[in-house]
Amino acid sequence: MRRGSLLVLLATVSSSAAADLRRLPPNTWVQLEYTTEQPSDPAAKGHFARQGWNKVVYDPDGKRVLFYDRWIDKKHGGYTIYGNCLFAFDPAAGRLTPLKIDNWTKKEPKEGGYRTLALPENDQEPTPCPRHVYHAFEYVYDLKSIFLCNGANQTALRKDGKLVGHDLCDGAWRLDLKTNRWTQIVSAEYPRNWLDDAMAYCPDTKTIIYAGYARQLWVLDLAKGQWRKAKRSPPPRTAFGETICYDPSHRRMLLAGGGPLDAWKKGKASEFRELYAFDPKTEEVTRLADCPTALYESHLAYDQKNGVFVTVAVFDKREQPSGMFAYDPNKDTWYEIKPANPIPPHKTWFGWMQLCYDSHHECLIGKVNEQFYAFRYVPGK
Hints:
Elements: E1 10-12, E2 30-32, E3 35-37, E4 46-49, E5 56-59, E6 64-73, E7 85-90, E8 95-101, E9 104-107, E10 115-118, H1 121-124, E11 137-140, E12 145-149, E13 172-176, E14 181-185, E15 198-202, E16 207-211, E17 217-221, E18 226-229, E19 243-247, E20 252-256, E21 275-278, E22 285-287, E23 301-303, E24 308-314, E25 323-328, E26 333-337, E27 351-352, E28 354-358, E29 363-368, E30 371-375
Parallel strand pairs: 3-8
Antiparallel strand pairs: 1-3, 2-30, 4-6, 5-6, 6-7, 7-8, 9-10, 11-12, 12-13, 13-14, 15-16, 16-17, 17-18, 19-20, 20-21, 21-22, 23-24, 24-25, 24-27, 25-26, 28-29, 29-30
């Protein structure tokens, strides 16, 4: 879909006024009501429906939260479990915008189920196949661009009609937010698609660091558009759901958690608590302090004002400790944050909260399902 075709009618999701993010009560979860902008194309009018624990990132240029998830409409096939749209959430204005919908749709075979196939528009303007993008999603503010790499879609059809599934999600894409167009990155080598991986931008080396299966790290040189394996990686093991993020306090990458799928349910899965540092210049790896709970597709949001990383986990069956946890990179220690009210929505949800830090309003922005929340952390309150 071309730029300019995506605006303007407002469909009210809630009639509540936008929250004043500068007057948030300390250490309190506040729900953010919002309205949803609709595309101008009648066939593309629809609604947001979350699919999975995909990563959210903060865009300081647009003062908004960016994420990739499902937009349900007639043109793009209605419901599937796969994300197909880049969204922007403005927490101050209380507005959700579908910025870019992929040129793909859905068909339903006679034998049941569905298949993901490209629309004719995809020939003129290629876009990535809809997918679970997991944490292999990042905003690079130096380039004003979104990057994604690999992911899952077992229903994907090749152009000739052959079912190839996840293979159609292989490789990396870049969306230039100035032109609103996707470009596929062609590299001689690239990380194998094991579906549930993660990546993050390092501004010091102008590279994206990718944490793949068995914890092999990869480096994408953004100037050259080429991947290579990192010289060193954490000790190898199965690591689905590993998290990686940039630590500006030490100019390094943090790699957290991950392990065999669903193994954290057994309660003693210690690998899900591991934390490592990766120096992007020397490519050395250092073991850090373990987290007090299991981390799987967890979000470590860096609270710039307080100089700590915050993550949120809820385990309704008590397999692991639930709560808000902070990591102090200067002391290499973890501690629990005690909010004034329960973590939302504490009675109807399990998982790791999608979380990022709004540097303009000095607060955390959390997302659970289709709901957004704000939290201003004030130590000692």
